[in-house]
């Protein structure tokens, strides 16, 4: 009869196959990692210490094989997911565990395969949460290593790794990272202007994490670094290269979201910058512009409404005519409505036309229509009963769509903020559920049996 230890080892082999297989989806690998965590927890609870140690050693051996000796990205990523799933389990002393885990993560973060790097950096960040002398030394050594790569490294994999590590350490160990924020913000511009969009976006996330650290701790330092960032942003726009413009727009987004009163004097210039680049030939720049417009609306709703709302709405409504840009435009319009409230009402006639088109059979065949439902939700919250006269025009295409969480939320918001529509929405939703569950409308099911043919 198989012992608990033998059963656990067999289960480990099954889990490892899912972790390493390149033929399974990423979701399957993540589920396998969760199963591994459960296996370790059960063994830790139920087995004798020496038997558990055998299992734990076997688990760590499999993880090392996947990460250090994996033949492809799938194996290495599976190994990182596995390590991440057990990183917070206290099954051995902290120093020994961290030394082993860090060695595995370094194999990824110092390597050439960029695919598992983000997951590895996230796991490294989780390791740095608890605090203590071991953590302090870990944060110091990894930060210094990342800063060195950020400053001198020409290999893109290393620049990407450095930005990821600094981002996660700033997010998960802000107190320990406080003393390094100045250095990070000073050196991050090279990677923020990298030729690869992925590295630029990751560097922007790093800046966001650093801004959060100083925003909550040091107002004088915040003011100084935001002034420097804004000056550097303007200098980058003068350069004219795509990566420089994109970097400046990413920095502008962070300043709008976290700058507080600092951006008040710069607000008109920020709006003009975004307007200037809305027709840029580069798609990444145009996409970033669309993401910035709701930030401008959120920062100063009254000034945005008075001076810029119409200009940007004309632009975004024009985007709704283009299949590839429609999703971003719907999301942006919904977020703008969230800020300007009833000021969005004059644009409803046009928006309803494009919402109906965005929910058409042809549009649904092209992909998800969740962005349309998000836009409807925010419009309902923003204008309330002003949307009443459009109910019939909206509900017909809505109830031709498949039932999804976003559709359901849109109906909930419409019913709450447009009370006269509550009964109609409830009855049509019940009919829709009846069709899904029973294949016929609720009224047919509710008829007395004597009236059935």
Automatic annotation (TrEMBL):
Q: Which UniProt keywords apply?
A: Cytoplasm, Kinase, Protein transport, Repeat, Transferase, Transport
Q: Where are the transmembrane segments?
A: none
Where does the UniProt annotation locate this protein? Answer: Cytoplasm
Which GO terms label this protein's molecular function in UniProt?
Answer: kinase activity
Give the principal location in a single coarse category: cytoplasm
Phosphoprotein in keyword set: no
**Coiled-coil parts of chain:** none
Q: Where is the Importin subunit beta-1/Transportin-1-like TPR repeats domain?
A: 278-415
Show the GO cellular component annotation of the record: cytoplasm
Lineage top rank: taxon: Eukaryota
Q: Which GO terms describe its biological process?
A: protein import into nucleus
Instruction: Answer whether the UniProt record assigns the keyword Iron to this protein.
Output: no
The protein here is known as Serine/threonine-protein kinase tor2 like
Q: Which organism is it from?
A: Verticillium longisporum (Verticillium dahliae var. longisporum)
What does the record give as the organism's lineage?
Answer: Eukaryota, Fungi, Dikarya, Ascomycota, Pezizomycotina
């Amino acid at each position: 009869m198989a012992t608990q230890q033998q059963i656990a080892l067999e289960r480990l082999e099954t889990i490892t196959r899912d972790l390493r297989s390149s033929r399974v989806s990423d979701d399957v690998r993540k589920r396998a990692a969760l199963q591994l965590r459960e296996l370790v927890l059960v063994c830790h609870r139920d087995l004798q210490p020496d038997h558990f140690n055998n299992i734990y050693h076997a688990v760590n051996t499999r993880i090392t094989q996947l990460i250090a000796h994996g033949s492809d990205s799938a194996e290495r990523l599976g190994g990182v997911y596995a390590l991440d799933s057990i990183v917070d389990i206290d099954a051995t002393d902290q120093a020994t565990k961290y030394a082993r885990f860090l060695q595995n993560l370094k194999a990824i973060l110092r390597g050439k395969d960029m695919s598992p790097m983000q997951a590895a950096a996230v796991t490294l960040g989780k390791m740095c949460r608890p605090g203590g002398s071991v953590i302090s030394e870990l944060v110091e050594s990894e930060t210094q290593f990342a800063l060195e790569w950020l400053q001198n490294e020409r290999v893109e994999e290393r620049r990407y790794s450095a930005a990821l590590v600094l981002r996660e350490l700033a997010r998960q160990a802000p107190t320990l990272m406080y003393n390094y924020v100045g250095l990070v913000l000073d050196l991050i511009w090279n990677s923020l202007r990298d030729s690869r969009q992925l590295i630029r976006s990751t560097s922007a996330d790093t800046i966001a994490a650093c801004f959060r650290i100083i925003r909550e701790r040091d107002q004088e330092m915040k003011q100084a670094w935001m002034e420097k960032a804004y000056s550097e942003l303007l200098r980058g726009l003068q350069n004219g290269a795509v990566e420089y413009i994109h970097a400046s727009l990413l920095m502008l987004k962070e300043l709008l979201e976290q700058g507080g009163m600092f951006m008040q004097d710069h607000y008109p210039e920020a709006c003009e910058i975004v307007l200037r680049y809305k027709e840029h030939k580069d798609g990444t720049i145009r996409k970033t512009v669309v993401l910035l417009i709701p930030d401008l609306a959120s920062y100063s709703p009254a000034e945005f409404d008075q001076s810029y709302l119409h200009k940007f709405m004309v632009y975004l409504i024009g985007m709704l005519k283009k299949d590839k840009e429609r999703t971003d435009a719907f999301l942006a319009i919904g977020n703008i409505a969230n800020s300007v409230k009833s000021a969005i009402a004059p644009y409803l006639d046009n928006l309803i036309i494009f919402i109906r088109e965005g929910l058409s059979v042809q549009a649904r065949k092209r992909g998800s229509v969740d962005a349309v439902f998000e836009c409807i939700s925010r419009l309902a919250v923003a204008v309330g009963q002003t949307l009443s006269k459009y109910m019939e025009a909206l509900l017909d295409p809505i109830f031709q769509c498949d039932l999804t969480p976003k559709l359901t939320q849109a109906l909930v918001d419409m019913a709450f903020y447009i009370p006269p529509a509550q009964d109609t929405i409830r009855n049509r939703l019940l009919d829709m559920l009846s069709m899904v569950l029973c294949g016929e409308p609720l009224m047919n099911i509710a008829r007395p049996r004597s009236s059935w043919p």
